[in-house]
Structure formats: structure tokens, C-alpha cells
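Proteins fold reproducibly. Next comes a concrete instance:

***
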Amino acid sequence: MKEKSTTTESASTVCYEMIEAKARKRFKDGGLPMHAMEERGGAGFSVSRRRLLAYAASSPVMTIAAGVGANLATPSSAVAQTTILWSADMESGYLLESNGGEWDEEVVTDSADSSAQLASSMGIPPYSGSYVMKQSVLGSVGGTRMGSYNEITTRVQAGGDFWVSWFDYYPNRITFNNTNDMWNFWQIAGQAQDLSYNPVWTLNVDGSTFYPWLFWPANGAYLAGPHQGESGPKDYKCTTPIPVGSWVRFDIYVKPSRNFTGALTIYMNGTTLFDLSAINTSYPTVPPGVGNPGESGFFYMTHNAYGSNLTPTPATHYVDKVTYSTARMP
């Protein structure tokens, strides 16, 4: 069913840092590279401070037993209680909360779309129910971003770490020229001191190998890092391709930080892809602001289909059972 947004366990780490000139060209002006993921001026960003505070006071949570999870830079195997902060299974047949779905907002750039669809009608196996989220870049350039903000904003302001998990299905590899184009499917983003919206960490793929590719494209004028003493764009690559034609589980551990004490660990089907510590994950706050929507330091995440000059076109992936939680989901 289509909806239109109102706004237009353990495994060895296999990542390595890419700092060659070719990779750096992705951040320069021209084409779609990371600038296209900026949301300058915040047009269409709709989460209000009043709604955020109301959520913090009244939202229900669910606690379950988890076998893995700890509040550490490198998560351990300690037993922890898992509180589900937010989840989406698309089983209402809608995406947006205003229509009975779970997501706060879709932001679309150029030619792209997110919608809830019956897995059977898409010709793919269902994962946990009948419906999935279909995300597609429909033309030569486009992006669709789905976000749910309040739950994580509240958690970050309280100084808490968290986990993100979801299941992803690619019917085929998506290919493109790595020099000028990209495919992005998840990001941490935030609001800088000039109140512009910018990506902080983005999870992309390599257009030749379909390896996950992690970028730090943060605006260096407002955010140093990712590690202390570093500046400018950086990226990290792994050597495990995303499987095609089957549901793939992603788990991400985030320890938010604006002073180089953060962490980001990304797993795919239980294998560690990236494990970074002593990093920044957010723009700084500017007192008296505390990182609410509309203020510097506002922290949020989105699930995306974002790219340019992709093969095939439309370029599509499917998402199911998205969960934000206080410890790793079992």
C-alpha cells in the first residue's frame, strides 16, 4: 500500500580504513556523493519539542530477556535486560504513524519512494509477517529516508547507548561507479551549529563488490573526528559482501558521544563488520540547547534508499522488523 510523505557472536573484525584519493573524491562537490544526503535548512523536518517531551513522559516500553548486550564500547556476552524503545514491522500495511504505521516521517529527494507492500506481491519470501517496507530509487538520482526520532533523542539526552536491528532483503546486487555515485541504506545524522542537517556516519555499499562501506562524511567545520586529532572525511571498508536473495540481519551498537568517547559496532548475520571506539557520533550542543529537534546537537537515524546512476533502475531493497533497543536483540 502506497503512502506519500507530507515532506519532499563473536567474530573477528574485517574492516579496514580507506584513505586513498579516489575514495576522498566522493566527498567533493558534483554529482550525488554525500552532499546529497544533507538536509540544509531543515525543510520538512516535523518533530516538535512539545511532541518529544510528551513522548518522554508517556511512551510505553517493552522489556524482554536478551542473551547478549552490554553498555560497553565493544559489546560483551553478558546477559542483559532489553527494553524495546521503538519497533516497526509494517503489518498495518502503512508506514507513517499518521496513517496507522510506526514511522514518524519520510523525506524524499528527487525520484525515490518508500512504501509498505505485501512480500508475496513483490515476489520475495516474507520475514516476520505479511508486509515489508519497500525502498527504491526510481530514476537516475533519488533518495528516500524513513525516520522515527523521539525515542532515540530521549535516550541520547539521557546519556544512554542503544542498539538498532533490522532485516534487509536485496533481490539483486546494486552496482554503480564508486567515484561519482553511491548506494546508502542507513545513517546517523544530526543538526550542526548552523542548524543545518548533515550525515555523521553513513552505511553504504561498494558499487563493484557489494561490500558494506562505512563513511564519516561529517561537516568538518562543525565536527572534528571521528577520532581525537582527526579531521576531514574518512571511510572504512570490509570484505564480506551483502548476501542477495535472502533476508540479512543487521545489528548496530551505538554509544553516542560529542567528545570522542563514543562507539559504533556493526554486525551482519552475526559477523562483525566494523568496530570503532573513542569516536564522535554527534554534533555538539550549543547551550542553552540540549539537542532537541531544531537545536544544534540533535541526533537521529534514518533507513534509506539513496543513490545515483544505479543498476538496476529502479534499485530496490526491502526492510522488516526494525527495532531500537537498550541491549542487543536475541
Remarks:
- The chain is about 10% helix and 40% strand.
- The helical segments are 21-24, 49-58, 119-122, 150-157.
